[in-house]
Structures are given as C-alpha cells and as structure tokens.
Amino acid sequence: MSHLHLPDGLLPLWLWLPALALVLATLLLSGRRIEPRRVAYQGALGAMMLAAMSVPLGPLDYHLALAGPVGVLLGPAASFQVVFVVTAILAFLGHGGFTAIGLNTLLLAGSATGAHLAFALTARRMSAPWRSRSPRRWGRRRPVSCGSRSLVWRSAGRRTRRPRVPNHGWA
Length: 171
What we know:
With 171 residues, the chain is mostly helical. It has helices at residues 13-30, 39-54, 67-74, 76-92, 101-125, 129-132, 135-138; strands at residues 141-146, 151-155, 158-161. The chain has a 3-stranded antiparallel β-sheet, with no helix packed on it. A hairpin with a 4-residue loop joins strand 1 and strand 2.
C-alpha cells in the first residue's frame, strides 16, 4: 500500500480533519512508550522509508512503502510515529498535500500494524517444537558446541551426545 498523492483542497473537511485528529491523539498515546535507546533505530528506519518512498519506480508513479518491514521491526506504536514523520516530510516535498497527512498516516500505519500482526502469528506458529513443550518435562535444550559429526546438547543439567549418523560420502 502506498500513500495518497492528493493536493490540498481536494479532500473535504469532514474527511481529513477527523483523520488528522485521530492521528494526533494516537501520537499522544504512543509517545509515552518511547525508549531513548530506540530513537536512533526509529530514525534510521524512517530515513530508509523516506528514501524508498521519495523515489518512483519506473515511469509510473508507484513507490516502495516499506511499511511492512518497519512494522515488523518496530512494532505498532513505534511504526506509527515513524510513519507520521515520514508522511509529514513527504508532504513538504510535494508528495501529497498537508490535508492528506492524517489519511496517509492511517493508511501506512494500518499496513505496518497488519504486517506486524501477521509476522507475530506466523512466527508463533513456526516456532521450534521444543519451545511449545513444557520446560519441566523436556528440559531446556541449547547447543553447547558444534562438531562435524555430532552436536553436544545440554539437557536438564547433563550432557548427552546426539547419535552418530553414518556418512555415505556426502559432506
């Protein structure tokens, strides 16, 4: 999903004003969760998103949005902040008017949140099978050292070796 290239005066007041008010209210709520260590990370991903969205792809006026990767890497609240800053800068650069900032932010933040939720559900379903089992029953297994033929596992406080598989000429 990309952003809207609508100039000022094209959208009616009843459409862009509530969207902008909703965006500002959401920014106030999500601004309370800013971690100072992540500000540089958010800025770097925002700069990458801004660079991708300001360069058109081919003769048509399509852009990479990068809302999905930003949503997966930052989460819904931080990606909302990044998307707002990027759409505001793009409005200054002429990619849409100032009245479309609220709608563009809601559109791209919805894409980022959807990507984050889809990734979280997929990652949960595709997690390693021993993570879903009870830790008391199976123990915590983590690799200690790797060799060419065997992998030493540490399981419930004792070391066990994985059985050797015969090598039939395959590396």
